[in-house]
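Incident log entry.

Two folding requests arrived from the same account within the same minute. Monitoring flagged them as a possible duplicate submission, but the sequences differ. Recording both here for audit purposes.

Request one:
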Amino acid sequence: MYILGISADYHDSSAALLLDGQLVAAAAEERFSRRKHDPALPSQAIDWCLEHAGIQARDLDYIVFYEKPLLKFDRILATSLDYYPRSYAFFREAALTWFSEKLWIKSRMMRALGVPANRILFCEHHLSHAASAFYSSGFSEAAILTVDGIGEWATATLGEGRGTEIRLPLEIRWPHSLGMLYSVFTAFLGFEVNEGEYKVMGMAPYGSPRYVDKVWKVIRVSDEGAIELDLDYFSYHHTPERAFSSRFLTLFGQPRVAGSPVESEYYADVAASLQRVTEEILLRMARAACARSGLKKLVMAGGVALNAVANSRIQDEAGIEDLYVQPSAGDGGGALGAALWAWHTVLGRPRGFQMRHASWGRAVPGDETRRELARAGLSSVRLKSEDELLDRAVADLMDGRVLGWSQGRFEWGPRALGHRSILADPRREDARDVVNSKIKFRELFRPFAPSLPVEAAGRYFAPQLADQSTPRFMLRTARVRDEMRGQIPAVTHVDGTARPQLVEQASNPLYYELIRRFGEAGGHPVLLNTSFNLRGEPIVASAADAISTFQRSGLDVLYLGDYRVAK
């Protein structure tokens, strides 16, 4: 039985395809359209999923949308009435998009895929998040926490999963939202909402949380993490023009101008203060979810679950045995959750799927690589074996070269995990600035991740990391051992932490072997890993994407399948 999950019409639209409850393909539309956070109906991602499975749309048994549009529109109408006349512009903009296309998502899917109405199902937004995490975790039972900006009405839910059943009895409702709080400050700090939140997290260690008391003035929280925003400080709930009010500016001062230098101590302190408050609230929510359920394992999803710093505190301080965060935790991952919800909840089928890797996207065929290299007029060498590929790549890294690495199927979610990565030697102190300024063209404060074999975790971090789920997907931070910070300076952040990726041989054997051989050559089995893209662009997917990014950046060498291209 084939079930296709779809998320669309907000941001990060995606498609995920199940065969008898097992994930076979999943991809975000942005990887094909090259429009970052593309919200459109994911027609290209859908086409690829079907092509990968060797089927056509008529072979689909069910198509499941990740939220309920009518319920979401109900919230928009109610909010507009509550805050009228200030909400007039908000309603006018919403009405234009909803009446033109969003309300008709069912008929749009029917036309696009040629399927009858009785094959289309709708799952609530936060239930899709919950299902994406719980049913992928491999846990037979777990507490559940979902947190994002907004779904239909819910902005966060607490509950539990046992077997195939998910219960979400508690929720926080719009306009009170931890995700929106973080986004408001993201806008205040001069970054793009739904894109720059991770920049705020990276900026925070450069400041001190000296304004925590000010942040607490705009939000109240119970012992269990139930939040209530003081809406006098905000305007996102009644106008599309600005997220914060004049009262917010009286409290925090003038916002940082987008594109201006980010070295200001004040704005770094604001970022640090916001991050600290966010962590404290999430800790309370996580403890409450576990206490209410009586369970010691926790799963999380929703865009806020991508906050790796907060995840590390939850893992270490919430009194839990393990934390699982689905690697595409944001809205894109709702496509997977919706499909899994249909399989387990609607159809009552037993569980058998566990997501232990994130490489569910499209691989680049060899003939495509040859064609695009010829079209670009690039001189390349085809490597005769995997051993030659690995040995050449290690030699390049040891010589200080920065590599574009495109191998196998691309990743599901926002993290590059060794399939579409930029790689460098983490022992070189200047590698971070080189990659940020000459290759990624982004802010110099942005950190990079260390990729290392799972069995080497205890050499660089606390040994218990090897038994945790989140480091497999680069979704927590950890303190680098004091004696190792000077050994891998390019991946050690200013606060002495890093966001590690623990690589398992079984899930990514080529990348694992590259790291192992680099360790043999240089003494440290660690690579600097960041996503293979330029600032403002999606991670590369095709051969043409990889070649274009290579040509437009300061990358030294491109490894595209079994081809090596050098400048």
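Request two (distinct sequence, not a duplicate):
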Amino acid sequence: MVNLRPILFVLLALLGYTIWVEWQKDYAAPPQAAASASPSKQKDADIPRAADQNTVQAASDTVPSLQKARPDSGDLPPAQAVPGDSGRGAGQEAATAGARELLTVRTDVLELAIDPVGGTVVSAKLLKYPVDLKAPGLKVDLLSAGGPDMFIVQSGLLSQEPAPNHTSTYRAEKMHYELAQGADEVRVPLTWDDAGGVHVTKTFILKRGRYDVGVRHTIENRSGQDWSGSRYEQLQRTVAPSKNSGGFTNPGRYSFFGIGFYSPDEKFVKIKFDDVAGEPFKRSFAGGWLAMVQHYFFAAWIPPSDETDSYSTQVYSPGGQPHYIARAISPPQDVPAGSVKAFSSRLFVGPKLQNKLEDIAPGLRYTVNYGIFTVFSKPLFWLLSHIHSVVGNWGWAILLLTVLIKLAFFKLTEAQYRSMARMRKLQPRIEQLKERYGDDRQRMSQAMMELYKTEKVNPLGGCLPILVQIPIFIALYWVLLESVELRQAPFILWIDNLSVRDPYFILPVLNAAFMILTQRLTPTAGMDPLQAKIMQFMPIGFSFMFAFFPAGLVLYWATNAGLSLAQQWYITRKINADN
């Protein structure tokens, strides 16, 4: 007979690996903090950075000269240099924002906190997304002003002439703005003046229902001489050794966590934070954007699509902790004396809503990372979201999706179940062959293969349906894992969150019951003792594995197992009745 051991061992290996991955998520020791960039790598980088306290002091002393640097040189005010305090880095300066009043602006979906120093965005609360269902008033904050998981959004201007950067202090008319009832947008102007006559207004433009924020630098040149400069934007963050706050559960372990750059030619380039020091990114292209991505949410700078910007990464280590920076610099523009010109860009801080990302910017959909199963996961999410638009509940959408998938493979599984039912009827004859050939396994196998051929029975009938479903199962796993639309989505009764495991393990147990009943309908004649034991162990193993999986995924598998059981029972009963 055909040896089923390799197939069973593959399934068992997959089961063991999945259990190990899930165990690692919950119980593994936290990863070590990323190592600081080595002196040699820092020396080779083109972007200024601080390797020690002396370098910090020197960089701080050069702020005026760097601020006057040629706008086309790519130089920036050092991220670690803050005027008047040479020992503090930009992240540390942001961390002191809590000691002074921050400007806040609130819409129906966003609440931003902006530091007057640099107009730096140090907090972005997503008002539609609570951290936990048990604390609905505590919202996910994508950014953080300081600490081990500091994450801030900076922007400014570069010029040979006076220009504000992310270390400059702006003035604000008031410290709180809110989207008025019936209004579509709210504007937050910050102003900066130079004694020589250069006046800059940095305006944040927030719109109702949107997570993309317009950021505009308007230069009024009253200096009597021409002004030329560039705009820059950057995202800066640190990475904590272990992260379990802000609505995220250690995102680096199971969803892409790092920096991303999009260009029309290369599409989406992903860079892990650990790789920034060794291989700094440096490209120039139009129609692109940069982002820092994590589970469910991300922040991105999106320059004008017709503008060729210079994109780069940098890492420096004030106090020994790496600070990672992703940056874009625009081409220089001239502002003649007596004229006004504006630099514009967009900042996105929000969730990975798949049906809306592409409307915001081309390629933004790539922030949803399904990995190698994208070819299966994207169609599954598309179908799942369309079903949800009709039924209004993600749990029922998963159930209906399971039925549709079952119908799509109906003919395949019907043929296999018919073959298995015939095998079941052949069991008495197989027992006779065992008695006839005894321990002569070679002649026994030949006789069984001849019997299968004569009766047109496929001995792999029990394994093929499972093998066919594995890619879909894994693809749906990534849909449930990566889709913010299903985050904290309720179903019915005890399942109030499809994106986490079943709190009472009812679905895994139900799935095990379906698998055990299915085994009773599956012929075991011809199996050696080891194969039989593996088959008996599988329902228990799968139940243990599913105890860790999101409830939505177990709902799919249990529903599929129940439908398969019903289909196999019906076909077996019908064949028995016909004979």
